[in-house]
Design a protein that fits this description.
- By secondary structure, the protein is α/β, with parallel strands linked by helices.
- It has helices at residues 4-19, 49-57, 60-63, 72-75, 79-89, 99-111, 134-142, 154-157, 185-202; strands at residues 21-27, 40-43, 66-71, 91-94, 115-118, 146-152, 168-174.
- The chain has a seven-stranded mixed β-sheet, sandwiched between helices.
């Protein structure tokens, strides 16, 4: 498997991200230290800087085979943009209007040995939105752990509608892995959503 995206992240993404950091706090790495993948990472979504923040702190063994669900109607409308995000961030198009197909694509990637990062709120801003259940269905069907992630400070760094970043302090917190049974996807979504926003209260 090619790890070109890792090289490109170190070349372009992390220097830009680091330039706009005014402090980076990471907690919960002990919760993922023993994981080898595949894993489904689930995070709140405030900004396009969220992905850079997660990649910046994720241990290399998990980062190497991480694929990121990117909104097809936003990132894949333009071929140049699509090529850039796919090459640098290792994204794949997630069709928010055909979730069944997107979940099937996600499952194929997981079954091939990749981990997945998904933002189940569906869009980025600081308002709390209910999580969509797709990730829980994937986790139950593939018998994979879900790791909740809480991110803060990225909305101040790169708020929705702004192109140029502003220096900001960023916090990334990893929760304990959760396994989801096929009969408990709905309650598990609420549990993981609660875990993420509990981390917000302690960040």
């Amino acid at each position: 498997m090619s790890y070109l995206h890792i090289f490109l992240q170190h070349l372009f993404v992390f220097p830009l991200f680091n330039t706009n950091l005014r402090g980076l706090e990471v907690s919960g790495l002990e919760n993922i230290r023993e994981l080898e993948g595949p894993v489904i990472f689930v995070a709140n979504h405030n900004s396009h800087a969220d992905t850079a923040a997660i990649l910046r702190v994720l241990p290399n063994p998990l980062k190497q085979r991480l694929v990121i669900a990117a909104a097809e109607d936003y990132f894949y409308k333009n071929k140049l943009v699509a090529g850039c995000v796919s090459s640098v961030l290792n994204t794949f198009p997630f069709d928010r209007h055909d979730v069944r197909k997107s979940l099937a694509d996600s499952r194929h990637l997981l079954e091939a040995g990749n981990s997945l990062l998904i933002y189940p709120e569906g869009s980025r801003d600081q308002r709390k939105k209910s999580f969509k259940r797709g990730f829980a269905i994937l986790a139950a069907e593939c018998n994979l752990p879900v790791v909740p992630i809480f991110i803060s400070g990225t909305a101040e760094m790169l708020p929705k509608g702004r192109f140029l970043p502003t220096p900001s302090k960023v916090t990334v917190s990893f929760g304990k892995p959760v396994y989801i049974s096929k009969g408990a996807t709905k309650t598990s979504v609420a549990t993981i959503e609660h875990a993420i926003f509990e981390m917000r209260n302690t960040a």
